[in-house]
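Field reference: "sequence" (input) and "structure" (output). Example, Exocyst complex component:
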Amino acid sequence: MASVETAAEHERILREIESTDTNCIGPTLRSVYDGQEHGLFMEKLDARIRNHDREIEKMCNHHFQGFVDSITELLKVRGEAQKLKSQVIETNVRLQEDGKVLIGSMEELKQCRVQQRNIATTVDKLAHCLPVLEMYSRLQEQMRAKRYYPALRTLEQLEHTCLPRAGQYRFCSIMAENIPKLRMHIRETAMTQLRDFLESIRKHSDKIGETAIKQAQLQRSLDSAVTLQPRALIGRRGRKEAAVTESSGEGGSPLSEQDSGILDVEDEEEEDVPGAQDLVDFSPVYRCLHIYTVLGLRDVFENYYRKQRRKQARLVLQPHSNMHETLEGYRRYFNQIVGFFVVEDHILHTTQGLVNRAYVEELWELALSKIVAALRTHSSYCDDPDLVLDLKNLIVLFADTLQGYGFPVSQLFDMLLEMREQYGEILLKRWNLTFRQILDQDNFSPIPVSTEQEYRQYTSQFPLQDPELEKLSFPKKLPFSEFVPKAYCQLKEFIYACLKYSEDLHLSSTEIDDMIRKSTNLLLTRTLSNCLQYAIKKKNVGLAELVQVIINTTHLEQSCHFLEEFITNITNVPPETANATKLYGTATFKDARHAAEAEIYTSLNAKIDQFLQLADYDWMSAAQSSGGLTTSDYLVDLITFLRSTFSVFTNLPGKVAQTACMSACKHISTSLMQLLLDPEVRQISIGALHQLNVDLKECESFARASPVAGFQGDTLLLAFSDLRQLLDLFTQWDWSTYLADYGKSTCKYLRVNPHTALALLEKMKETSRKNVVLAQFKKADRDRQKLIDAVIKQLRNLIAQHHA
């Protein structure tokens, strides 16, 4: 059984050896050597080899005849091959002999082709080198001509296009080494030109701004109807923007310096008035911008330009310390600012991105804040209204100029409205001096008019409407003094001055009207009122002058509605408009008139006091018959003075004259009463009372004569009623009636105060007591003393009862 399995395994291994590649029989042979039947397998293998040998032998025997036949044929072919070889050798010899000429020609042709190739190569190399040399020559010419932007473009083309094509030649290497140096030279030269340009525009910004402002002024004068037409400068700017956009649309930068935004001659010929930009050659900026753009350093250039211009802006916006002294100082300041922003606006619209709108607006915001602050500071030092007005016009022109370039200027107009308050205060100060000068020069007397021409001259200055006066023949007098027409004319001049400031501020008629009315009210209520008070209160003002002041203020008060009409005519705003400010002139002149009236009353009383100081009563005089007494001299003089004074009051309003007359009479009565009750007068005789009674009768006679018209009946006598009843009580010694009727409305001595009567009795008691002692107790004197004591006792009881 084991031998069968072994035989089968050996058979399998043999088949595997026969069918397997010899490179892979290793494992198979190893399995044979690993087994125990090695000898048996070798026997099997030998038997298999013998079998295959027998098969090979059989096959060879089968094909042997064919092999013999093939050898025989091969031998035959050999002979033929020898013949063919001989023929080929002969042919080759003949061919070699015949080809020697051809080979020579071919060599010549080969040499010719090599030369042709060398020539073509040389031509090709020259074709690449010649443009390099030509371009380098052009570069040198451009550098000598200082045409740096085209030189830089040539340099770029030489470096990136021509030199790589030319190959590695020594001259190319030298050129390549020089390119960075040339580029740096161009960069430095362009920056130098830019610095020169910045310095130039800094120096000439004043002239640029002056030209721009003149153009704006010319445009405004030509366009008086304020129509929105394109400005000449804006039109020019539009053409330049189109040119720059057109030139930079293809390659992002101009083809030559002539296309770089430099203003050409044709533009100047098209305009009658040269533009502010025509004063500046902007080519250095454009050239430097394009050069740095090509160098890839545009951001560096933009930052440098903006930084330098910011520094220049700070210098321009710094005003001189004495700028406020003259208008020329303000003009130079504004010219420099306008020049600066005209340049920036031109750069904004003729370059793409060197400055942008946000940058310019930021600069303008900075400038606007500094301008407003500077103007507020320096204008506050100004006290000349003409200079303030000129400054306002200059600021308006400055604002209009920059507004034409698209800059917002509302803050400037707001500041002008603030300055209007200052302008109003300065005007008030000037008019205060003017009014005071007029008052100081006024003679406070009616104006004499001799001819119709003089009369018309005054009525043209002041709206006098007095039909009665017009009917009078010449010569005649106007009721007011020179102050009235002069003051009225100055009021109108003040209104015109306020109107001048309101012009060109883009205000509505209502706003202008409101501003004028408010300023005029300040002039009336503060300035003119103070001046009138000054004229009324100053020393050495006589009653005649005060009377004339009242007459003057009365006529000025009547002219207030003419002032209203005057303002309405120049502002075209009717006074009945809602919220319209009313003039306070009526109240102002009424207050002045009341002050003058009070001053008249005060002055008149002071004059009366001067006369009363001359009173010299003998309070201990003996009793005399009434026929033997005469009016005191001081009182005669006082009455004479009052009559002459009240005769001047004929032109005053009736109420004023009546009040003055009543006040004077009351003051006389009160003063005489005070003389009686003066504590320093301790004793009074009945004779002194009789003298005082005579003086009082003179006063009453003066009152009955009605020195001032308008009093009804004996109204003026009421001023002396207190003193009259007191003297009647003592001279008639009617104490029984006084004591019996005291407190009744029908009392004869209703105006006699018991305290006053008691004080006067005490003084008479002292006199009576002294007389009794001197008369050695005469019965009549003793009886009188007792009577006085009894009356005093009754008066004291009456006072006590009244008090309880």
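The longest helix spans residues 38-144.
Residues 701 and 717 are 9 Å apart (CA to CA).
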